[in-house]
Amino acid sequence: MLINMVKITDLHKSFDDLVVLNGVSFSVETGQNMVVFGRSGTGKSVLLKCLIRLMIPDSGEIFIKDHNVLNLNRKELNELRKDIGFLFQGSALYDSMSVRENLEFPLIRNFNLEQDEIKDRIHKVLEAVDLSDAIDKMPSELSGGMRKRIGLARSIITKPKLMLYDEPTTGLDPITSKEISTLIVDLQHAFKMTSIVVTHDVLCAKIIADCAIVLEGGHIVHEGTIKELLAAEDPFLKNFFSDEVINNNGRN
Amino acid sequence: MKFQKDKFFAVTQHQLTSFFETLAGLFIFSIRFFKEVFLPPYEVVEIRKHMIELGMKTLPIVGVTGFIIGLVMTMQLQPVLQRFGAEAFLPGSIGITIVRELGPVITALIFAGRVSSGIGAELGSMRVTEQIDAMEVSGVNPFRLLVVTRVFATTFILPLLTVYVIFISLVGSYIAVVLVQNMTWEYFTGRVIFAVEFADAVPGILKTFVFGFIVGIVGAYLGFNAKNGTEGVGKASTTSVVVSSLLILIIDMVLVKLTLWVWPNVN
Known about the structure:
The complex is a heterodimer of chains A (252) and B (267). Helix content of chain A is 40%, strand content 25%. Chain A has ten helices and ten strands. Chain A has helices at 44-51, 74-81, 99-110, 115-128, 144-156, 174-191, 202-208, 226-231, 235-240, 242-251; strands at 4-15, 18-29, 33-38, 59-64, 67-68, 84-87, 162-166, 194-198, 211-216, 219-224. In chain A, the strands form two sheets. Chain A has a six-stranded mixed sheet. In chain A, strands 2-1-4-5 form a four-stranded antiparallel sheet, covered by helices on one side. In chain A, a hairpin with a 2-residue loop joins strand 9 (211-216) and strand 10 (219-224). Chain A is globular, with a radius of gyration of 18 Å. The relative contact order of chain A is 0.16. With 267 residues, chain B is mainly α. Chain B is globular. In chain B, helix 2 runs antiparallel to helix 3 (90-128) and helix 7 (198-224) packs antiparallel against helix 8 (229-262). Chain B contains eight helices and no strands. Chain B has helices at residues 2-36, 44-83, 90-128, 131-137, 142-180, 185-195, 198-224, 229-262. Chain A binds chain B through residues 49, 52, 54, 74, 78-79, 81-82, 84, 86, 88-90, 92-95, 105-106, 109-110, 158, and chain B through 125-126, 129-131, 133-141.
């Protein structure tokens, strides 16, 4: 039987008079990859940040692994966060630390591991993202794609059960975007994670998604598989995916 | 003309509101600091790292400033005291002025310019590039790791720097003295030690703990709460210097009054 890893009910979030999320509800089953689509400013990143309580929603409920995220105390929340990985839009690597220190950071701070175990995990995740030779580099020495990969490596080094991706392919060229998307799927299979991916990148969604939702005006306006969304006759969806449809037709 | 007047009042009102909002935010932030500073785990390694870094970063500039202040003040005071036939009081009066007021305040102001802006920019940059969020997401308390350690370091490094500046200022002062008259270092320091009392030295040094705290907490508060990208980082950095310098001078005024109330014979 499939159980819900994430369940969100009637989530509301506003900034002064601007309503960003207006009654958003959905659930993600364990092992599933869900993509959240929406135009810029429709609250996709806010949704992710509410999910992990970096932002507090105005109302609604968020359950992760049956824990009501909004009712947890600081200690319980930190315990839960150990099981969650988050890839930020700009990778959010710690500038003052080398790649090795960036990867060590969550392990040293949160897990009582032997030095050998830490080294082993660093070695494995760097191999997984194909950047073993970058271990002693500083973040400023890495390209955008490399930073994303290291950010991804840092997120998965704690072996999270749930991964949250905030625009994982934004700002990358199409080839690197595709590489990152494929890497996300490979890692998801290797580490058996559940993922929620916020993106506008349809190609990335096609590679990653088991299912998708579309946010507009604070609501979920469509829900289904990528194929269903691309084939939908709804004018908003047609408009949203139009370039992609044209490109696909061209390629086909 | 009327429009300009309205604009002037609007801008002034905005700036005053913003200043008092900053003060209120700082107050709440400080309460959080005192709540968290006593809770384990104690980040001893981080605190030591920041103390060394901040101390080493500021040591040359405060040293040069202290030397010049001692030198110039003596050059200014010498002819004045000579006019009143009180030249013999020069080392003592210089010593008291430096220990009681100039040493602590000048060091604190330079420290604010160098360190508060640095902390504001560093934490501001970490905030806008989501590094602080990343820390929080990984189950680490960023307030304790980034704020508590830095504020603790500034609070305890500034008194040490002040002692250093006082010594360097006296060296500067001595050099100014020997340029115009014959005096040994032993005699000069002897006169200073004779003149400077416990009630001069202790409040002077004690208030630097408060100044150090102000420098750290202002920079950390503005950096930790920075927004609007790189513009916000710049603003956090410059505002840190302005607010911390202003607060140092205001608090100094209060502390001087308080010192005179506690030790009424110090004048």
